[in-house]
Amino acid sequence: MTCTASIDTPIGPIEVVARDGAIVSVRFVDGSIAGVRACDSARLGGAESREACEAIAQLRAFFAGELREFDLPLAPWGTPFQARVLHEVRGISYGRTCTYGEIALRIGSAGASRAVGAANARNPWPIVVPCHRVVGAGGLLTGYGGGTWRKQWLLGHEGGGLALPLPAATGAAAHSNAEVVYATGPRSTGL
Description:
With about 190 residues, the protein is an alpha+beta fold. About 30% of the residues lie in helices and about 10% in strands. The strands form two sheets. A three-stranded antiparallel beta sheet has the order 1-2-3, with helices on one face.
């Protein structure tokens, strides 16, 4: 059984999908979440709904500033290389950043920063596996599946020095991924 639950957040609606006791995906929903059930264990019932409801509870705590690290069962995903990349990304501490090149070095693939970026871009669990904490060389905020404006907001939320108010319109069309923004918060140290 597949369970879908959603939550409204400061950066737009987020949908969580759980199946077979694990989180399959966390995704930004640009547009209405009408028709997606809010997480209510009494309505959803069953083992899979517990994981979806726990993901919603942890996301709610993250956005309230009460949670820094997620503890959720994640479904197996990707190639061995992609799994190594996301394992490293999951280890980037709250409020810190790391470059694609640093991740490549950490997984023993020096020079594979573009491949790291490609794996990071396919992350099915944004925020939970904090791909927003990975930045380009020199701290450049490069692409983010949910839009660079969300990446900037998330880093600011975590104390990375980028906290900015959201614009009045919060849809993909209201934001440009071409804007050059630099992360100014703390960086990870060492490999």
